Amino acid sequence: MSVAERLEALNLSDDTNLTFTYEDGCGVHHYTDDFIEEAMRETGIVYTLSEAITTGPLYRHGNEVLQEMRDNGLLDDYPRDGSGFQDYVTEVIANNYWEYDWIPHTTNRYDYKRGHTTFTLEFDVPYAHFKEDPEAALDAFRGWTVSVSTDNGTLVLD
């Protein structure tokens, strides 16, 4: 049974939020000034975020990351020819992530130089937006965990 079929079997109301969560991390040498950038490159978290916000329900119905980019003029130079939007957004994220809270991260420091940096992305999507095109939604969130609050607790699907 697919994730979409399992969600449909729950008989969720259209306004029920599905929470999509993605977590990735790697070992770092936190004594260097660029350990966050290195961890971002190693995990590919910037591409993962850009893919999620430029496809599927987060793109069709809007999301706070793209809206913040628009509000701050970060997408003004994109040529409106319809090509390469995801790549352009990936570049914008990579060049501006320090100024915005688009990619939350934590670093567990093992000692004075080694540690592990973890990135966590999380988006809520109303079930109504998900069920419009579940295959596109699941494609946009490939590798993510989906959870939904039910009367019996939080159900986590992967």
What is the spatial order of strands in the main beta sheet? 2-3-1-4-5
Main sheet: strands, sense, barrel: 5 strands, antiparallel
Classify the helix fraction into a percent range.
40-55%
Give Rg in angstroms.
Answer: 17 Å
Per DSSP, the total helix count is 8
Overall shape: globular
The pLDDT mean sits at 93
Number of separate structural domains: 1
- Give me the secondary-structure category: alpha+beta
Give the total of beta strands: 5
Strand content: 25-35%
Separation of the first and last Cα atoms: 12 Å
Low-confidence stretches: none
Written account of the structure:
- With 158 residues, the chain is of the alpha+beta class.
- Helix content is 41%, strand content 27%.
- Strands 2-3-1-4-5 form a five-stranded antiparallel sheet.
- β4 and β5 form a beta hairpin.
- α3 packs across α6 (85-96).
- It is globular and about 50 Å long.
Give a brief description:
By secondary structure, the protein is of the alpha+beta class. It is built from 8 helices and 5 strands.
